Fold these 2 entries.
Entry 1:
Amino acid sequence: MSILSMSLVIAAIHLAVPIILPLLGGLISERSGVMNIALEGMMLVGGLTAVVFSFLTGDPWLGLAAAAVSGLISGAALALLTVTLRANQVVASTAINLVGAGLTAALVPIIWGTDGTTPSVAKIPPFVVPGLSELPVVGQLFRELTLVDYGTFVLVVGVWWVLFRTDTGLRLRACGESAESADSAGIDVVRTRFVAVALSGAFAALGGAYLSIVILDAFQAGMTQGRGYLALAALVFGKWRVWPGVAACVVFGLADALALRSQIVAPDIPHDLLLAMPYILALVALATFVGKGTAPAAVGKEFARA
Amino acid sequence: MSARVSSRRTRIDEELLRESLEINRRGHNGWRAEVLARAAAAGGTAAGRILSFVLTVLAAVIVSLPLVYLSGGDGALALDALIAGSWGSPIAAAETLVQTVPLLISGLAVALAFHAGLFNIGVEGQLVVGALSAGIVGATLPLPGPILIVVCVAAGAAGGALWALIPALLKAYRGVHEVVTTIMMNYIAFNLSTFLVSPSGPFVSSSQPSATEKIPIEARLPILVPGTRLHAGLILAIVLVIAVAWYLYRTPGGFSLRLTGANPRAARGAGISVPQTILRAMLLSGALAGLAGAVQVLGLFGRYFDAFSPGYGFDAIAVALLGALSPVGIAAAALFFGTLDSSAVYLQAQAGVSREMVGVVSGLVVGFVAAQPAILRLLRRLRARKARTRPNPSPDDLDRVLATVVPVPLADPDDAISHGLAETEATR
């Protein structure tokens, strides 16, 4: 079996999307001036919410929608702490991460009585693209990807368009570069940031739901495995821009996919070391390529009207 | 350096700090009020600190009670079990102290970095590497008992420091935010340690899967109370509390570390090398974290077990913040979380509360600590509304406040941690 195949491409996409979605969330939040390192915790909450609602209704799409709502809520919680109450952004994010990890792990046995992993629920089915799926080789791609994968691509373009091509995006970025200037230009900094942080939660939660009801069909405690932080690394590495950030996510996803594939192709290479690949890659990327002065100037700074 | 010289040095340093705060706030109206407010927010006085400690714990416990009921547990029963399971008997009390030790030492690790304006979220990984180093050295080096203990403890500290080195260098000299890099190091540590004691790993025991060989009994930390698991790690933890307090508040090194955390620009102005201070703080923090892991291996398990830590390094963040970054406060906070940890098994059996609730409580504690400045701001505004014409704080007040120097990263969200990035970059 060749290691380079269509299945590898599909696996890479499947493993890149759950980093791309929180990346978009982080981008929106940090461009508005709020450092969001709570993506990981929000992903876990979204992942569990998706499974709960897919379990209750039997409809994975409702699970996905519920996950987005859960993300809005955890995002709003972070916004309340950081934007409204002007708490330290890193500390507040850590609180969300700890509560998210603890709560999701505690709720699984409460709801199902099982330890750690939920039972299987309905998952989002692959979407067979008429016509394209008949093609040789690439046809597999159009048979195995889901609507969520296509939707993610639309979201990437959408976020890029809104942030960098519209007035709304300009206003949001102004809050992230200089809250005082934005304020004097009549922009409601507090409201803009609040909405941005809440939205970033929704994106992160969708990333978690992607793991639990698109790739798998169950939630497992701690299943995000640091993807929320990989998204942050991609954000920094991509210099807070959409396309370089997405490219970094794709590289991480590919590294992940390669690690999984080499388990089959080259069982001699220790599996655990391969699993560390994306993190090592992220670290190397941060060490070698990050220049200075690329973060939004006001990120991490609280804002209060005088 | 004699004690007298060092104490005079410290006094001069305090003046420097005051000056730097003044420079920092000049141009602001009423900067003194600002300093006072920050001190208040950090719980500047002993009474304030104790009050905020108690309130934070109460708030976190109360908020998590509904979850206890939700899980089919009984809240009152849970509180009962909490006390009985942790302090109900001498054996339970000893077990609580056993659980407190790693939280206390890793809490000190988080706090030390915090004082320098660094958020070391990688304590968990450093702790694992420290434990692994101690376990490997203890199982392989053929040294006589007491010497081997010392070597193992040193190996643990060195392992933890080594794991903090890359993030420290990246932060100090390239301005890469330490949160992202230390997290990456965590995951690398988890995978690497699992590999090293996996069936194909080089250090796996021949009799016990996912563990190293046993460390000889003579090279383990002695048991303090026969019949319990309470080991000499407790003494080491207490010594470390004193050592960290002394280092932070009584040495020039500790002062430059705190000044860098409080105001990197002022530190630079005072001739302190900010990158070097960052490097030092991060390595010391990593060494402490490594010690926390080594103590578990040498005192409790007698060997390294894969995934032995239930997340001490993450709970340590809550411990450090609840303790308001002061070593004594951290000891109290560690005791609180040690109580939760040691009663966890009991709680599960008696009141149906799952172990993961400890994680929820630590998260809530961190959240409440984060919200503290806002709550205090609100209280002050209410008080100010009552007494509109209050005079500006006198310089005496300022002196009093500065005597209990403020853990600024906590008190002022606008400061060091979030700005560390920009500040370090400006130094280059």
Entry 2:
Amino acid sequence: MLQVVDLHMAFGTLEVLKGIDLAITERELVFVIGPSGSGKSTLLRCCNRLEEPVKGQVFVDGTEITAPKVNLNKFRQRIGMVFQSFNLYPHLSALANVSLALRKVSKRSRVEAGELAMAALQRVGLVDKAHSYPNELSGGQQQRVAIARALALEPKVMLFDEPTSALDPELVGDVLNVMKDMKDAGMTMLVVSHEMRFARNAADRVVFMDQGVIVEEGTPKDMFGKAQHKRTRDFLQQVDH
Amino acid sequence: MSSWQRFAEAFLDWDVIVQYLPAIGSGLIVTVEIAALVVICGIVLGLVLVVLRSYRITVVNWLIIAFVDTLRSVPPLVLILLLYFGMPNIGINMGGFVVVWLVLTLVLAAFAEEIFWAGLLSVDKGQWQAARSTGLGYTQALIYVVMPQAVRMTIPPLTNRTIAITKNTALGTVIGVAEIMNEATTAVSFSGNASPLFVGALAYVMLFVPVVYLGRWIETRFAWRKN
């Protein structure tokens, strides 16, 4: 469903990704962990070309989105993204946030877009907040609206960039529950996060990145219990799990 | 005679005021016409320029920046005189009203473009990323997500600058436009009394105090503070 081949990315002379190969099959939830600066967020952003890789290829549902003549806007609808700082549009209501792309990109009518948006809000449990504005919502609610915004376009794969890192602890659970529901419903997900407990419970595979390369990957049981590489074990020891 | 009586004689001569009130009234209408046109055209042009600038095409940017920097540096009076007395030499006769409108529109557009540009740059990059990640094109993201936020953030400096620039309609007096100042100074020379000037000043107050309040109302209603 999502495949990354020999991905290289640099900011000027600073090499951030030094050859990443990763394949995610349909319905898989892959968790990416690693210290800050390891390139995890950059990897995520290369998957929908918010960052442009300097070398390598990204395939989504069989199509190479790093090819020169690809219709990126069209393919970005197939790739949903959720950000650490939510990035809701503050001048629009929750419903308008979710329906904007439906109206302007999928070219749905206002009525149709509204219905689809309400359905997405229902999936994240926020139908009653449809007409609220982002500044009236808690962090957890905002993030769930952000998830609905991505879901409404019916993506094939969802990318999560530290979705709960900016949330107060008591709000994290609501967002993780929504993510668990999505996993159970069969969504393909690539998640960068520090929520190790969630990884243990929901992830099919855990990938450890450090300094721009994938050091190790495996099932949660393998990684958390008996990681092969010392770097992996050191990192996991530092992070509470 | 007390100083109050002298003041009243000089500035509040009732007969003179009554005689020239209609003239100043018609001057007020001209001022309002120019000011309204300047505000609408100037802000719209400023928006167009900032949208163009956001595409970052080198040549276009160069032109926009040259235009904006020139118009913000030259005193409007100089431009008005240049256009009014200079243009007829190359065959373009615009008339005083058009010259004042054109110069003030361009000056307001230049300042508005810079104000909107600053607002555009200060919109969080995450807004662009979120919009683009849902498949919105560059222009769509600009129009539906980023510019609405940029404009709301820049309302205070924008209303401020608009009020300052539209008061320059008074410069029309130099090229014979029949706005408030022109009517007032003409009345002063005919009557030999300064009262019409005083009424002129009152006319500006009557016109712009509501505008200032309108600006403040727009600010409180629509403007955001950047968090």
